[in-house]
Amino acid sequence: MTADGYLPANIQSAGAPPEIVSLTPAVKLSAKGEETLIQTEFLGAKIERVFAVISSPGFSGQRKLEDWSELDQYIREVDLDFVGVGSSPNVRKYQATVGKLQQSGVYTVVVHAENMDGMALPVQTTITVSEPALSGDINGDNSVNIFDLVMVAGQFGKSGAGLSGDVNGDSSVNIFDQVMVAGNFGKSNVAAAPTVLVNKLTFTSQQKRSIQSAHSGIGKHASVFKSRRTGTEFVDSYPT
Fold first, then answer.
1. Does domain 19-129 have CATH number 2.30.30.240?
2. Strands 118-119 and 123-129: what pairing?
Protein backbone atom coordinates (compact mmCIF):
# COMPACT_ATOMS: atom_id res chain seq x y z
CA MET A 1 0.00 0.00 0.00
CA THR A 2 1.27 3.46 -0.83
CA ALA A 3 1.74 6.27 1.69
CA ASP A 4 -1.56 7.87 0.66
CA GLY A 5 -3.51 4.67 1.40
CA TYR A 6 -4.17 3.41 -2.14
CA LEU A 7 -3.41 -0.01 -3.57
CA PRO A 8 -1.30 -0.12 -6.74
CA ALA A 9 -3.26 -1.22 -9.81
CA ASN A 10 -1.38 -4.52 -10.09
CA ILE A 11 -2.20 -5.67 -6.53
CA GLN A 12 -5.49 -7.32 -5.59
CA SER A 13 -7.24 -6.50 -2.35
CA ALA A 14 -7.61 -9.47 -0.03
CA GLY A 15 -10.40 -7.73 1.86
CA ALA A 16 -13.18 -7.44 -0.71
CA PRO A 17 -15.72 -9.81 -2.28
CA PRO A 18 -15.29 -10.77 -5.95
CA GLU A 19 -16.39 -8.24 -8.56
CA ILE A 20 -18.03 -9.17 -11.87
CA VAL A 21 -16.17 -8.12 -14.99
CA SER A 22 -18.15 -9.82 -17.77
CA LEU A 23 -20.91 -12.36 -18.38
CA THR A 24 -22.22 -14.21 -21.43
CA PRO A 25 -25.07 -12.15 -22.93
CA ALA A 26 -28.56 -13.57 -23.43
CA VAL A 27 -28.56 -16.77 -25.51
CA LYS A 28 -31.20 -18.20 -27.83
CA LEU A 29 -31.36 -21.94 -28.55
CA SER A 30 -33.28 -23.21 -31.53
CA ALA A 31 -34.35 -26.52 -30.00
CA LYS A 32 -34.87 -28.29 -26.69
CA GLY A 33 -31.92 -30.29 -25.42
CA GLU A 34 -29.25 -28.11 -27.04
CA GLU A 35 -26.23 -27.12 -24.97
CA THR A 36 -24.77 -23.67 -24.46
CA LEU A 37 -21.72 -22.25 -22.71
CA ILE A 38 -21.93 -19.76 -19.84
CA GLN A 39 -18.74 -17.75 -19.37
CA THR A 40 -17.98 -15.10 -16.78
CA GLU A 41 -14.99 -13.15 -15.49
CA PHE A 42 -14.41 -11.99 -11.92
CA LEU A 43 -11.88 -9.76 -10.23
CA GLY A 44 -11.00 -10.85 -6.71
CA ALA A 45 -8.57 -12.72 -4.51
CA LYS A 46 -8.93 -16.41 -3.64
CA ILE A 47 -12.33 -16.93 -5.23
CA GLU A 48 -13.68 -20.10 -3.67
CA ARG A 49 -16.72 -20.81 -5.78
CA VAL A 50 -18.53 -19.51 -8.86
CA PHE A 51 -21.95 -20.97 -9.61
CA ALA A 52 -25.13 -20.27 -11.53
CA VAL A 53 -28.71 -20.66 -10.32
CA ILE A 54 -30.96 -21.56 -13.26
CA SER A 55 -34.73 -21.03 -12.97
CA SER A 56 -37.16 -22.73 -15.36
CA PRO A 57 -39.52 -20.69 -17.56
CA GLY A 58 -42.48 -19.32 -15.66
CA PHE A 59 -41.03 -19.93 -12.20
CA SER A 60 -41.78 -17.21 -9.68
CA GLY A 61 -40.50 -16.72 -6.15
CA GLN A 62 -44.14 -16.16 -5.22
CA ARG A 63 -45.08 -19.68 -6.31
CA LYS A 64 -46.67 -21.70 -3.53
CA LEU A 65 -44.85 -24.97 -2.90
CA GLU A 66 -46.12 -27.87 -0.85
CA ASP A 67 -42.59 -28.99 -0.03
CA TRP A 68 -39.10 -27.51 -0.43
CA SER A 69 -38.11 -30.55 -2.47
CA GLU A 70 -40.38 -29.23 -5.23
CA LEU A 71 -37.80 -26.52 -5.90
CA ASP A 72 -35.65 -29.14 -7.60
CA GLN A 73 -38.23 -29.24 -10.41
CA TYR A 74 -37.82 -25.54 -11.12
CA ILE A 75 -34.33 -24.52 -9.97
CA ARG A 76 -30.89 -26.07 -10.28
CA GLU A 77 -27.33 -25.00 -9.53
CA VAL A 78 -24.40 -25.39 -11.88
CA ASP A 79 -20.78 -24.83 -10.78
CA LEU A 80 -18.55 -22.87 -13.15
CA ASP A 81 -14.97 -24.10 -13.48
CA PHE A 82 -11.87 -21.93 -13.51
CA VAL A 83 -10.40 -22.02 -17.02
CA GLY A 84 -7.61 -19.44 -16.87
CA VAL A 85 -6.71 -15.79 -16.84
CA GLY A 86 -9.35 -13.50 -18.30
CA SER A 87 -9.19 -10.21 -20.15
CA SER A 88 -6.46 -8.85 -17.84
CA PRO A 89 -3.85 -10.46 -15.52
CA ASN A 90 -5.92 -9.96 -12.36
CA VAL A 91 -9.16 -11.28 -13.86
CA ARG A 92 -10.15 -14.94 -13.55
CA LYS A 93 -12.32 -16.66 -16.13
CA TYR A 94 -14.92 -19.33 -15.36
CA GLN A 95 -17.30 -21.34 -17.52
CA ALA A 96 -19.81 -24.19 -17.56
CA THR A 97 -21.79 -26.05 -20.18
CA VAL A 98 -25.53 -25.94 -19.64
CA GLY A 99 -27.81 -28.51 -21.24
CA LYS A 100 -30.92 -30.62 -20.62
CA LEU A 101 -33.20 -27.62 -21.07
CA GLN A 102 -36.29 -29.54 -22.10
CA GLN A 103 -38.89 -26.80 -21.67
CA SER A 104 -39.42 -24.04 -24.19
CA GLY A 105 -39.35 -20.49 -22.87
CA VAL A 106 -36.95 -18.20 -21.02
CA TYR A 107 -34.61 -19.61 -18.38
CA THR A 108 -33.19 -17.10 -15.88
CA VAL A 109 -29.51 -17.59 -15.06
CA VAL A 110 -28.12 -15.79 -12.00
CA VAL A 111 -24.35 -16.09 -11.48
CA HIS A 112 -22.79 -15.85 -8.01
CA ALA A 113 -19.20 -15.84 -6.76
CA GLU A 114 -17.75 -15.95 -3.26
CA ASN A 115 -14.47 -15.74 -1.40
CA MET A 116 -13.55 -15.46 2.26
CA ASP A 117 -14.61 -11.80 2.24
CA GLY A 118 -18.15 -12.38 1.03
CA MET A 119 -20.39 -12.78 -2.00
CA ALA A 120 -20.21 -10.84 -5.23
CA LEU A 121 -23.26 -8.92 -6.35
CA PRO A 122 -25.23 -11.47 -8.40
CA VAL A 123 -25.51 -10.89 -12.14
CA GLN A 124 -28.17 -12.21 -14.48
CA THR A 125 -28.49 -13.41 -18.04
CA THR A 126 -31.07 -15.54 -19.85
CA ILE A 127 -31.29 -18.62 -22.06
CA THR A 128 -34.29 -18.78 -24.38
CA VAL A 129 -35.31 -22.15 -25.78
CA SER A 130 -37.44 -21.84 -28.89
CA GLU A 131 -40.34 -24.12 -29.70
CA PRO A 132 -39.48 -26.17 -32.79
CA ALA A 133 -41.13 -25.01 -35.98
CA LEU A 134 -44.45 -26.68 -36.68
CA SER A 135 -44.48 -28.11 -40.19
CA GLY A 136 -47.40 -26.66 -42.12
CA ASP A 137 -47.64 -23.45 -40.08
CA ILE A 138 -47.24 -21.22 -43.11
CA ASN A 139 -48.43 -17.94 -41.64
CA GLY A 140 -46.40 -18.29 -38.43
CA ASP A 141 -49.24 -18.14 -35.90
CA ASN A 142 -47.99 -21.31 -34.14
CA SER A 143 -50.99 -23.31 -35.30
CA VAL A 144 -51.79 -25.34 -38.41
CA ASN A 145 -55.31 -24.40 -39.36
CA ILE A 146 -57.63 -23.42 -42.19
CA PHE A 147 -55.61 -20.28 -42.92
CA ASP A 148 -52.52 -22.35 -43.76
CA LEU A 149 -54.64 -24.65 -45.90
CA VAL A 150 -56.01 -21.68 -47.84
CA MET A 151 -52.48 -20.33 -48.43
CA VAL A 152 -51.34 -23.64 -49.93
CA ALA A 153 -54.50 -24.03 -51.96
CA GLY A 154 -54.17 -20.51 -53.34
CA GLN A 155 -50.72 -21.32 -54.78
CA PHE A 156 -51.46 -24.91 -55.75
CA GLY A 157 -49.76 -25.83 -59.02
CA LYS A 158 -47.31 -22.91 -58.97
CA SER A 159 -43.54 -23.37 -59.20
CA GLY A 160 -40.63 -21.13 -58.33
CA ALA A 161 -38.57 -19.81 -55.45
CA GLY A 162 -39.99 -18.11 -52.38
CA LEU A 163 -43.51 -19.55 -52.51
CA SER A 164 -45.03 -19.45 -49.02
CA GLY A 165 -47.12 -22.54 -49.82
CA ASP A 166 -44.03 -24.60 -50.67
CA VAL A 167 -43.89 -26.37 -47.32
CA ASN A 168 -41.33 -29.05 -48.25
CA GLY A 169 -39.02 -26.69 -50.13
CA ASP A 170 -39.05 -28.39 -53.53
CA SER A 171 -39.85 -25.11 -55.36
CA SER A 172 -43.33 -26.31 -56.24
CA VAL A 173 -46.70 -26.16 -54.47
CA ASN A 174 -48.28 -29.55 -54.97
CA ILE A 175 -50.01 -32.46 -53.29
CA PHE A 176 -47.01 -33.10 -51.03
CA ASP A 177 -47.35 -29.64 -49.46
CA GLN A 178 -51.08 -30.17 -49.06
CA VAL A 179 -50.42 -33.50 -47.33
CA MET A 180 -47.95 -31.88 -44.90
CA VAL A 181 -50.45 -29.19 -43.91
CA ALA A 182 -53.33 -31.63 -43.64
CA GLY A 183 -51.21 -34.08 -41.65
CA ASN A 184 -50.59 -31.47 -38.91
CA PHE A 185 -54.00 -29.82 -39.18
CA GLY A 186 -55.24 -28.83 -35.72
CA LYS A 187 -51.81 -28.99 -34.06
CA SER A 188 -50.51 -25.99 -32.15
CA ASN A 189 -47.39 -24.81 -30.32
CA VAL A 190 -49.37 -22.44 -28.12
CA ALA A 191 -50.95 -23.33 -24.81
CA ALA A 192 -54.49 -22.59 -25.95
CA ALA A 193 -54.92 -22.11 -29.66
CA PRO A 194 -57.87 -19.92 -30.65
CA THR A 195 -60.82 -21.82 -32.02
CA VAL A 196 -61.36 -21.09 -35.69
CA LEU A 197 -65.02 -20.66 -36.53
CA VAL A 198 -64.92 -21.82 -40.11
CA ASN A 199 -68.52 -20.85 -40.79
CA LYS A 200 -67.45 -17.25 -40.16
CA LEU A 201 -64.69 -17.33 -42.78
CA THR A 202 -65.15 -15.81 -46.19
CA PHE A 203 -63.42 -17.43 -49.15
CA THR A 204 -63.13 -16.11 -52.67
CA SER A 205 -64.41 -18.32 -55.46
CA GLN A 206 -60.83 -18.97 -56.55
CA GLN A 207 -59.82 -20.06 -53.03
CA LYS A 208 -62.78 -22.43 -52.85
CA ARG A 209 -61.94 -23.93 -56.23
CA SER A 210 -58.28 -24.28 -55.22
CA ILE A 211 -59.15 -26.02 -51.96
CA GLN A 212 -61.61 -28.32 -53.68
CA SER A 213 -59.04 -29.15 -56.36
CA ALA A 214 -56.41 -29.90 -53.73
CA HIS A 215 -58.94 -31.94 -51.81
CA SER A 216 -59.53 -34.10 -54.86
CA GLY A 217 -55.82 -34.79 -55.01
CA ILE A 218 -55.68 -35.61 -51.31
CA GLY A 219 -58.51 -38.07 -51.82
CA LYS A 220 -56.10 -40.23 -53.78
CA HIS A 221 -53.93 -40.43 -50.64
CA ALA A 222 -56.75 -41.05 -48.16
CA SER A 223 -54.70 -43.49 -46.10
CA VAL A 224 -52.60 -40.58 -44.82
CA PHE A 225 -55.64 -39.09 -43.10
CA LYS A 226 -57.54 -42.11 -41.83
CA SER A 227 -57.22 -40.93 -38.21
CA ARG A 228 -57.22 -37.12 -38.64
CA ARG A 229 -59.87 -34.74 -39.81
CA THR A 230 -58.50 -32.23 -42.29
CA GLY A 231 -59.47 -28.66 -42.96
CA THR A 232 -60.69 -29.54 -46.44
CA GLU A 233 -63.73 -31.22 -44.90
CA PHE A 234 -64.92 -27.83 -43.71
CA VAL A 235 -65.10 -26.16 -47.10
CA ASP A 236 -66.74 -28.85 -49.24
CA SER A 237 -70.18 -27.48 -48.49
CA TYR A 238 -69.31 -23.89 -49.33
CA PRO A 239 -71.10 -22.57 -52.43
CA THR A 240 -68.88 -21.33 -55.24
1. no
2. unpaired
